[in-house]
């Protein structure tokens, strides 16, 4: 929790500097990106978030994405270096070489650009801080949809693929149960430990 507050304080300090500057110094922009990503990654969601808190989180993430758009790919690599994993081809995942090829296909001296271009850039980028930031980004969008009465991203995907989804609830006695979209209730049964056997 202390690290999150430290990152957030530095983010706010640099945001105040950014608002005062007329030329929008690159050094301040880089610090805003670094502390902004770290703040979002250390953010702990509350159990029962309100629509207002999710909207605030979404606006903060959107602001950070717009600031990232001011940087060139080379400047971004200096802030969050590409993670040095080299066996992506073996595991069919992003790695150093994949990200390097992607960045080489871009104009390295041109800013990353719009929020959509930033999203695509970060999606292709291999750095664990950025991966965590993207997870928080998608999670926030999903929470926003859910609180507005729409299905979350995973619920929509499951529905499109014919997969049933359930929500877990707990009664006043502490018994857990599942409810599907049709309102059918299913009792949650605890798995029997392997060392217990049925005696005949």
Question: What amount of the residues lies in strands?
Answer: 5-15%
Class by SSE composition: mainly alpha
Overall pLDDT metric: 88
| Count of helical stretches | 9
Helix fraction by DSSP (H/I, runs of at least 4):
55-70%
The total of beta strands comes to: 3
Task: State the strand order across the main sheet.
Answer: 1-2-3
Shape: globular
Main β sheet profile = 3 strands, antiparallel
What is the gist of this entry?
The chain is mainly alpha-helical and 200 residues long. It is 56% helix and 6% strand.
List keywords for this structure.
3 strands, globular, mainly alpha, three-stranded antiparallel sheet, 6% strand, 56% helix, 200 residues
Question: Overview of this structure, please?
Answer:
- The chain has helices spanning 2-20, 26-41, 51-68, 73-79, 88-91, 96-104, 115-124, 128-147, 153-160, and strands spanning 166-170, 176-180, 185-187.
- By secondary structure, the protein is mostly helical.
- The longest helix is centred in the last third of the chain and has 20 residues, at 128-147.
């Amino acid at each position: 929790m202390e690290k999150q507050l430290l990152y957030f304080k530095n983010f706010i300090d640099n945001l105040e500097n950014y608002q005062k500057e007329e030329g929008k110094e690159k050094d301040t922009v880089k610090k805003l990106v670094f502390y902004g990503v770290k703040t979002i990654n250390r953010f702990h969601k509350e159990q029962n978030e309100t629509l207002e808190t999710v909207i605030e989180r979404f606006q903060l993430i959107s602001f950070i994405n717009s600031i990232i758009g001011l940087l060139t790919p080379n400047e971004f690599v200096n802030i969050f270096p590409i993670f040095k994993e080299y066996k992506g081809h073996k595991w069919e995942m992003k790695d150093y070489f994949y990200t390097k090829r992607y960045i080489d296909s871009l104009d390295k001296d041109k800013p990353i650009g719009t929020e959509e271009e930033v999203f695509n850039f970060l999606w292709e980028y291999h750095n664990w801080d950025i991966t965590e930031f993207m997870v928080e980004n998608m999670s926030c969008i999903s929470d926003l949809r859910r609180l507005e009465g729409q299905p979350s991203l995973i619920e929509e995907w499951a529905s499109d693929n014919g997969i049933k989804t359930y929500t877990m609830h707990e009664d006043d006695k502490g018994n857990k149960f599942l409810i599907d979209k049709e309102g059918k209730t299913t009792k949650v049964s605890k798995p029997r430990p392997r060392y217990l056997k049925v005696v005949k």
